[in-house]
Amino acid sequence: QVQLVESGGGLVQAGGSLRLSCATSRLAFSGYAMGWFRQAPGREREFVATINRNGGRTYYADSVKGRFTISRDNAKNTVYLQMNNLKPEDTAVYYCAGRLYEPKIDHYEYNYWGRGTQVTVSS
After folding, report:
1. Which residues contact 89 (CB under 8 A, 6 or more apart)?
2. 3-state SS assignment for residue 88
3. Among residues 12, 34, 42, 93, which is most buried (max CB within 10 A)?
4. φ, ψ for residue 30 (rounded to 5)?
């Protein structure tokens, strides 16, 4: 049925950059706000960024503001997370998620989830 597939994770040194992608299938993509969340070992899933349906509004966690940028391409049914100046504390599994209409910062507000992609930042 609905599929969200993250890619672009990997191992990078502190200060480096990664660009995550989330490709969606069988989802009315333009009708959904999209978000990125992350979960580190022993931690709860936390909000990273979200973007509204047409890409005109974005919201970020304080911990990533100024370093990460969320964007979307509705023609490609894909949402991105550009991560710059990565820090070891960014190490986590990053999840893509979608919900109808309005963006939210709480993970339980999202209906569809990808399986995640690992991001590891070495010091």
Report:
1. 63, 121
2. helix
3. 34
4. -65, -15
Nearest to 48 by CA among 56, 57, 22, 58: 58
pLDDT of residue 119: 98
CA–CA dist 117, 90 (Å, integer): 13
Burial degree of 28 (CB within 10 A; 0-12, 13-18, 19+): exposed
- Phi/psi zone of residue 64: left (φ > 0), alpha (ψ -120 to 50 degrees), beta? alpha
Strand partners, 73: 78
Q: 3-class SS at 16?
A: coil
Query: Cα–Cα distance between 30 and 28 in angstroms, integer?
Result: 6
- Tens digit of each residue's pLDDT (9 = 90 or more) over 24-74: 999 999 999 999 999 999 999 999 999 999 999 999 999 999 999 999 999
Note the pLDDT tens digit of each residue in 88-111. Answer: 999 999 999 999 999 999 999 999
